[in-house]
Task: structure prediction
Amino acid sequence: MAKLTTDEVKHIAKLSKLTLTDLEITKFRHQLFNVLTYMDELNEVETVDTPPTIQTTGLENVYRADKPGDCLPSSKAISTAKRVSENYIVTKGVLHK
Result:
């Protein structure tokens, strides 16, 4: 694999919306080259007879069944709220335009 050019690293940085200094470009140029070289090595590994693997432990997600139970009454839930409207707690907005 040929070494990455400075322009290629700048292009990758632009696509990643990164602003890099000249020192960082030099540093990342070397690091990216090493990553791509390693990927070339991995591409040489024979995997034709290897089944696809998502995970290797055999573990599965285990969920418990929902069980109805005692819930906190809304009157108690809103009893310490500073502001309440129609049985809902009113808070400051977190999303702004």
Remarks:
- The helical segments are 6-15, 22-43, 74-77.
- The CA atoms of residues 17 and 34 lie 22 Å apart.
- The mean pLDDT is 90.
- The first strand starts at residue 84 and ends at 85.
